[in-house]
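INFO  loader      accepted 1 record
INFO  loader      residues=248
INFO  predictor   begin
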Amino acid sequence: MIKLNAIPTTPPPGTDESKIREITEDLVDDISDLQRVMYAEKKHSLLIVLQGMDTSGKDGATRKVFRRCSPAGTNFYAFKKPTDEEFAHDFLWRVHKNTPRKGEIMIFNRSHYEDILIQRVHGWISEEHAEKRMAAINTFEELISFDNNTTVLKFYMHLSNEMQLFKLQDRIDNPRKNYKHNPGDWEERKHWEKYMDCYEKAINNSIIPWHIVPVDEKWYRDYVIAKKVVETLESFQMEYPVLKKEKV
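INFO  predictor   done
INFO  writer      dumping tokens
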């Protein structure tokens, strides 16, 4: 049973930042190389879920970790408040149509888990409703896994309460970050403990496991994500397709 308050949001003591940064650069290159093979082979697809509180670095991690990937085989989708059309369908409708095709890496900034997080925190759905949605999410993730050979990598961006406060204030104090300021983020912060409880329920009731990423230090955040992505892509044992020799 995962308890988030028992897991550090910072790198392990004694971690060498300069060495980790060097390793991360190599991992970023590896992701680019492996992504090209996956795009050419078109047998696998990878769905990466980045989920976490406001200011946890979902955009930053995407920019840093996947910056050398070809846009031809890499895509990104940010989940925001559902549109009227999306509200008129089941909660997974807008998610399913954005899952990756074979040969593609799709990165979700927030995800289908929003529908058992913010709605649960604010009491917009009942606990019974949330539990049924959790079951539907597990079935959905298993479906795309076996039916389209899609591997689902889920990263919880583990941010400390203190670091979030610093980053939210920095969006006000730093003119270059003013564009990120959203008063609503401060309101959501008031529900921190409820969010932690709902995240733990989502993490502990998932069939496909979550990876808890300490994100208070960006350089360590990028390393942890990049390392897991490389390990996953390498496990596919992919090869560039070759032309078959024609008989003369």
